[in-house]
């Protein structure tokens, strides 16, 4: 029963299942393969179960590889974007000519006395006003260009892996179809041989 269920399933059906479902099926098939008493009673000695087991393993591996590729592309986009934004918006410390600052010659902690008031001078606020400089436009465009090239490279790799996977699945399906045809031809040939033997037996009986 288990052998028939496994052999009847096609790769197209596996593609419709979630990764969790595939892993559950894989675990069930592995447990079944370990049960030698059941495997030994099957007509094909569990070959169809082994083939289905390999198909499930392959589908899980393909799903995980695609997930890794998608994650790497997403990470690349985020990391490169962060670097670009950081370079565009980063405040770079550069030397600047001294400008005239009111009260710069005064001691900020010294008290200044007047006839009726005593007050302290304000702290030098210029420390908080650091000079800034944005990166040139040409450099910014070069960063965007490099980012775009890396993303395209990852997308090409992803397409190549997907194409290779499709070709492997098609070859596996063709091999499976050929095996099925071979089994049918073998069964027909055996049936014809049995009929021939039966006819010869009948003929010998009539002659005797």
Describe the structure in brief.
The protein is built from six helices and two strands; from the N terminus they run αααααββα. It is mostly helical.
Topology:
Blueprint: H1 2-8, H2 11-15, H3 19-34, H4 36-41, H5 47-89, E1 111-113, E2 118-120, H6 137-207
Antiparallel strand pairs: 1-2
Helix pairs in contact: 1-5, 3-5, 5-6
How would you characterize this protein structure?
The protein is mainly α. Among the domains are: 11-76; 138-173. Helices cover 71% and strands 3% of the residues. It is built from 6 helices and 2 strands, in the order αααααββα. It has a two-stranded antiparallel sheet with strand order 1-2. Strand 1 and strand 2 form a beta hairpin. Helix 1 crosses helix 5. It is elongated, with a radius of gyration of 39 Å. The chain starts with a helix and ends with a helix. Residues 91-95, 107-115 and 117-122 have low confidence and may be disordered. One of its GO terms (molecular function) is transcription elongation factor activity. Residues 167-208 are annotated as: Disordered. It holds the Pfam family GCOM2. Residues 169-182 have a biased composition (Acidic residues).
Low-confidence stretches: 91-95, 107-115, 117-122
- State mean pLDDT (0 to 100 scale): 70
Strand order of the largest sheet: 1-2
Strand content: under 5%
Number of strands: 2
Residues in helix, %: over 70%
Query: What is the ordering of alpha helices and beta strands?
Result: HHHHHEEH
The number of helical segments is 6
User: Roughly how many Å apart are the termini?
Assistant: 47 Å
User: Rg to the nearest angstrom?
Assistant: 39 Å
Q: Main sheet, how many strands, which sense, barrel?
A: 2 strands, antiparallel
Give the structural class. mainly alpha
Shape annotation: elongated
